[in-house]
Amino acid sequence: MGIKGLSQVIADHAPAAIKTIKYEENFGRKVAVDASMCLYQFLIAGRQQDGTQLQSESGDVTSHLMGMFYRTIRMVANGIKPVYVFDGKPPDMKSGELVKRSERRAEAEKALAEAKEKGEVADVDKFERRLVTKEQNEEVKKLLTLMGVPVVEAPCEAEAQCAALVKSGKVYATATEDMDALTFGSSILLRNIVAAESKKLDVKEFNLKRVLEGMKLEMSEFVDFCILLGCDYCSTIRGIGPKKAYELIQQHRSIDAILENIDIKKYPPPEEWPYARARELFQSPEVQPAEDVQLVWKDPDTEGVIAFMCGEKSFNEERIRSSLAKLQKSRQGGTQFRIDSFFAAAKIVKSEPTTAAKKRKLEEEASKKGKGKGADKKRGPPIKKAK
Amino acid sequence: MFEAKLENAALLKKIVESIKDLVTDAPFDCSENAMCLQAMDSSHVALVSLKLEVGLFDTYRCDRTINLGISLKNMSNALKCANNDDGCMIKYEENEGDSITFTFTDTKRDKTQDVTVKMMDIDGEHLGIPDQDYAIVCEMPAAEFQKTCKDLAMFSDSLNITATKSGIVFSGKGDSGGINVTYAPNSNADDEKESVSLEVNEPVNVNFSIKYMNSFTKATTLSSRVRISLSNDVPIVIEYPIEEAGYLRFYLAPKIDDEDNME
């Protein structure tokens, strides 16, 4: 599920860190894609209307191949160079330290249903998404390799590996829906890159440096703040929501200091709370050093793809061929570079605000004040509704 | 307040028509000395840079540096109402709402038209373009360059430019065939307007997308001459001077064979 409510907190406290950009604007960028999350979307969240999945003639599920194939084509046709990063083994937190799995699964399913209703991509729990089978993972790796797209196997968490690639400058950004890519230290996170074209979603770019500036936090403080909000590795202190967590981190600057200073009776931390281990997982995760990762984009092996997709998995040959032609075409005549890779951004230009913009700003300020008051009044746990 | 008057609307018309397909929204930077514009196309491959110095205007008043955001499509519509030789006044007053007023005056008929265009909010990054010396600077008739780009586009998506002391070659190769257009420098030509001049500091060999070049050459109407500046592996500059008191420049990032990670 990434970090609970983080995107909203960023929108509230560091709006300058989020940029909405058109899909095409990512032209010429190399991005690390969290493959495991994509697969989860295709297989679990992306069922057909009747709840079944796409199948080949022999009854094998093929939604993951279909999803991966077309989304990759879309990226490449738009000049994006993807690198897919797969999850390795789960992080070794002792089972006793993990939150109850069954509880989490129920939660995840609920969240999934909700997100589906809204037509959004669900945030996916790091443990939940390992439900994608090994075979399915292998099939996708085979397909991507045939398509000439680099595949990286992370020793542990894919998000962490993506972040390492971004930090080293090998790629521009991490493309994922999981906000914890920021907690792992990805300087740039792109949302909606792997979305279906038909949804016509704009891409949201989160800039970590601006997040930290806007929230006035150091990176280590930001990690602690994310753990307070709720991450995949441990539970949180009851009664502390995003607003309180922000206040506490501003005041005390670390979870240790917060625990020393808050009223433990009012805000009981979980028993044997492994926040320090979670922090360690975020700050020094197990990754392959970026220097050792070779990223090579090759020509697609058209016949290989056809043999696999059409021969084994009964996809329509004509469609696969015409899509592959797009892939081939985008590779001709060298790589088109971006103008902003030669000229650095010198300043931000803001045009004269129109009255509509002025009004919006006033309203935002007013509603922020209003929100503050409302939250103060509504202290205490929410009242449960009787069935 | 901002108020500037051009002797005729044709200049602004030509500028807007030549960039409106490349850039949709434009933030006009107006200062004491000039009216400028910098904007990238949606895929951030090309950059447009316009400068109109005070000297181009009949009257010019700008009380403070101001940035006016406007949709080029709307601006183009407004300018369509004007005849080429109508006078053109651009006016923005802080207290008079969110629009820019274009006043076109036709002295022959004693007619004036006030057209207002709604402004828009634009947030964007301004790129710093370093002053640099280019390996090659070539000047030629703008119409000649336009024809060459058009001809090449029939054969190829890519334009290759090579230049040495002996001349500059534009070439394109595609599935159907190929074309090479060579200009040997002829600065001694009788007619200065028709001459092709070439300054070579270093030989170059660079590739560009022909689609963008063709889009740039819409500005051919602005100027009889075009100046092309390029070096290996940096953006090319296609400049159309405007009456020695301004320019419209297009920067285009090159296509580079990325051999390290492309096999």
UniProtKB/TrEMBL annotation, chain A:
PROSITE patterns hit by this protein: XPG_1 (PS00841), XPG_2 (PS00842)
Origin: domain of life: Eukaryota
Cofactor note: Binds 2 magnesium ions per subunit. They probably participate in the reaction catalyzed by the enzyme. May bind an additional third magnesium ion after substrate binding.
Residue ranges occupied by any XPG N-terminal domain in the UniProt entry: 1-108
CC cofactor: Mg(2+)
Entry keyword annotation includes Hydrolase: yes
GO biological process, one term: base-excision repair
Annotated GO CC locations: mitochondrion; nucleolus; nucleoplasm
Biased composition (Basic and acidic residues): 361-379
Keyword terms: DNA damage, DNA repair, DNA replication, Endonuclease, Exonuclease, Hydrolase, Magnesium, Metal-binding, Mitochondrion, Nuclease, Nucleus, Phosphoprotein
Matching SMART domains: HhH2, XPGI, XPGN
Region Disordered: start-end pairs: 353-387
Record EC number: 3.1.-.-
GO molecular function: 5'-3' exonuclease activity; 5'-flap endonuclease activity; DNA binding; magnesium ion binding; manganese ion binding; RNA-DNA hybrid ribonuclease activity
Subcellular location: Mitochondrion; Nucleus, Nucleolus; Nucleus, Nucleoplasm
Claim: NADP is one of the keywords in the record: no
Gene3D superfamilies: 5' to 3' exonuclease, C-terminal subdomain, 5'-nuclease
Residue span, XPG-I domain: 145-217
Protein purpose: Structure-specific nuclease with 5'-flap endonuclease and 5'-3' exonuclease activities involved in DNA replication and repair. During DNA replication, cleaves the 5'-overhanging flap structure that is generated by displacement synthesis when DNA polymerase encounters the 5'-end of a downstream Okazaki fragment. It enters the flap from the 5'-end and then tracks to cleave the flap base, leaving a nick for ligation. Also involved in the long patch base excision repair (LP-BER) pathway, by cleaving within the apurinic/apyrimidinic (AP) site-terminated flap.
Annotated family: Belongs to the XPG/RAD2 endonuclease family. FEN1 subfamily.
Annotated protein name in UniProt: Flap endonuclease 1
Automatic annotation (TrEMBL), chain B:
UniProt entry tagged with the keyword Nucleus: yes
Signal peptide range: none
Record keywords, A-Z: DNA replication, DNA-binding, Nucleus
Domain Proliferating cell nuclear antigen PCNA N-terminal: 1-124
Proliferating cell nuclear antigen PCNA C-terminal domain sequence ranges: 128-255
Highest taxon above the source species: Eukaryota
One of the GO biological process terms: response to methyl methanesulfonate
A molecular function (GO) term: DNA polymerase processivity factor activity
Alphabetized CDD domains for the sequence: PCNA
Pfam families: PCNA_C (PF02747), PCNA_N (PF00705)
Principal subcellular localization: nucleus
Listed GO CC annotations: PCNA complex
Subcellular localization: Nucleus
Protein family: Belongs to the PCNA family.
Entry function: This protein is an auxiliary protein of DNA polymerase delta and is involved in the control of eukaryotic DNA replication by increasing the polymerase's processivity during elongation of the leading strand.
Oligomeric form and interacting partners: Homotrimer. Forms a complex with activator 1 heteropentamer in the presence of ATP.
Protein name per UniProt: DNA sliding clamp PCNA
Source species of the chain: Diploscapter pachys
Upper taxonomic lineage: Eukaryota, Metazoa, Ecdysozoa, Nematoda, Chromadorea
